[in-house]
Amino acid sequence: MSGLRLRLKSAPTGRLDVSCLQPAMLTAESAATVARMPFEGGALGDLFDITAAGDTGTLVLEGATATCDGIGEGMRTGALIVEGDAGAYAGRFMRGGRLDIKGSAGDYLGTGMKGGLITVGGSAGNFTGAMTPGQKFGMAGGVIRVGGDIGERAGDRMRRGTIVVKGKTGAATGSRMSGGTIWAEGGFGPGAGPLMRRGTLIGPKAEQMLATFADCGEQDMVFLRLISRFVAAELGPLAPPPLPARVRRYAGDLATIGKGELLLTG
Amino acid sequence: MTGIGTMNVNGVAIDDTFAEAFGMSGTGLVITADTMKWAMIAATTMTGFGTSVIGCGAECGIDCEVAAQDTPDGRPGVRVLIFGFSPDAILPQLKNRVGQCVLTSPGSACYNGLDSPQRLALSAGPRFFGDGWQMSKRFGGRRYWRVPVMDGEFTIEDTCGVTTDAVGGGNLLILGRDRAGLLETAEAAVAAIAKVPDVITPFPGGIVRSGSKVGSKYKGAVASTNNAYCPTLRGTAKSELDADTIAVLEIVIDGLTSQSVSDAMRVGLKAVTDIGAAKGVTRVSAGNYGGNLGQHHYHLKDYVA
To answer: N or C: which end of chain B has fewer CB within 10 A?
Structure first.
């Protein structure tokens, strides 16, 4: 038994929902069987060249574009490698497994995910790790690592889990956040943490910090070591350098219960 | 006077008897600090007054030092073990010992030190010291609490593993004709046992000089002196001692598994027989209750090479 490689025969002209391409399910079948599976009014083989390749349990999606939505949605096990870009809702509601997107990802990456690991080589859109409309909470577990920047409102209503960004974040990161950690190596965009109740934002700088965040001064906290080691263990070579021994802590958002924190490492 | 068969190893008589031990519950913690010195201070303090479940509520001890790279926060650590009759009996001990001795120790943090599916609510007491300012962080499958204290934050893991397969009461009785030499030999045995993972010797320095028997002539006393092994009573009470025995020291061993206790018995006995009669040790025996009370029997003859 090996993995599968699905190569898009041509770039989709409109939105294409590929959330049904689940590694655990598809890699248990032969390439020929998968090619006959119904998809979008036809069969998978109509849109994809399908070959057996790679490691067991691994599905490679080649040629994906920013119009391919729902990649790896609800994944529980296995690995899905996207050679190309991902559209909206990639990794939404993921519970386990690994989703590697070599290119960039669209909006709502990893929204509502509860477990597993998502890596994005490029950048990600708005509402990364946030809640999707109609849901009560955002990301509740797992790890997202983005190699570039992420858009606005990352971690909106996030409860648990960890987001690591090599670049910077857009405006209002951690809005309405009630738990979890967002670590932005490049810093936070304007107005981070609006109505943030709990949770942790870590970065070297924050633009236009909200007036409702209180300066707690420099702090030396054991917890910084825990997160550095956890991220290093999860991400290996993709992990950022360990956090410094001291950070400047701002507590907020004091417009709510103010038990969240913005930790500046710069 | 032994009354039972003996073997002789390096001039030391080994009784053909067995240590009788009991099933217990046990948990492990890793305590870290900025330096090994302060991790050890916290560990030593929290395992104090933890010699016997009868009077102390738990049997506690230090298992080993943990290198910085092997602790959750990358700082030097010490692994402590706590044993009790049941998980429910250990929980209040955890709450008090961690709350009073680890939380209070400068720079300390406290983590689970035993992988087990059965869990104890390690943070259930100490985290409420935060008076509402405590914060929870979950990384992977592990949840931690950050409790604000005067030197920053006290970090404590939410739960710790507990096993009901632990064993308490493995023991060696070392008899001799020279009290100082006997103590040196017992110290060597404790040092050897300390290298065995998952075991502790909970008494002072790992050694007991007041072995007990069950019951007493006095109402309300659940245990009393083991008169059969008291040299000063030889001749006035039924004695298990030879004529030249002037002191007996006992090493009590608790372990997270029966195998670990067995390993400790083996290395402890070997340490004694390696020294042999040179320091005045004449005989090694073991404490038992006839074999009907404890589920675990460790026969000395099994450990004689």
So the answer is: C
